[in-house]
Amino acid sequence: MKIKQIEHPPSTVVLYGTSWCYGSRQARQALDESGLVYQWIDIDRDIEARQFVETLNEGYRSVPTIIFPDGSVLVEPDWDTLIAHLRRFKTRS
To answer: Domain Glutaredoxin: where (predicted)?
Structure first.
């Protein structure tokens, strides 16, 4: 699991993943339960999104990749890390 920072983040949470990936499904569940507004993008269906994820992750299609409006990026987070980050992020909103 990696935590990164990007410039020019989106205005809402963006979750890049795939429908077949357990981690992507878990991340969607966590975001749904958190109540945060987010955008789901399936990189198997969106070539530009897949290329973005590959660029961000040094050539790898690492999913889930989650980008937050504060510029933080979680890559393949475990459940506890994701929940902790969502709690911190939610207090900033």
So the answer is: 13-68
Chain Cα centroid distance, residue 65: 4
pLDDT, the chain, mean: 92
Sheet holding 38-42, edge to edge: 2-5, 72-75, 65-67, 13-17, 38-42
What number of other Cβ atoms are within 10 A of residue 28's Cβ?
16
> Considering only CA atoms, which of 15, 23, 2, 12 is closest in space to residue 46?
15
Predicted model pTM: 0.91
Sign of torsion over alpha carbons 65, 8, 45, 36: positive
Residue whose C-alpha is closest to residue 90's, from 33, 46, 40: 33
pLDDT tens digits for range 14-33: 999 999 999 999 999 999 99
C-alpha closest to that of 65 among 19, 23, 8, 35: 23
- CB-side exposure of 3: number of CA atoms within 13 Å? 9
